[in-house]
Design brief:
Length: 108
Amino acid sequence: MFTEEAILELELCKSIIKQGGKDWLDERDIPMLDMAIEALKKKPEWIPVSERLPEKDDDYLVTLDFEWEREIEMGWLVDGEWLNANGHAVVAWMPMPEPWEGDTDETK
């Protein structure tokens, strides 16, 4: 199931609740459904380069295609061209995740 389909299914559950619910689904489930929808919307997904390139030059996570395996590395898009340490083909990319925002004492 694709993310978009899962979101549609969760939205359908919410509409069932708003129309009176079912034995297994009621108003108490709406916050959980909203959390699941938000989590699905935020989850980064790999985007094949055959589908599209990023809209701006920046750092990205990339999947490199080696003859024997695929690896994840950091890649840089500069003027529409991928730059990476290995010089192998970039087959997919995703935006860099947000930095962790935990306690600053975690480094001790």
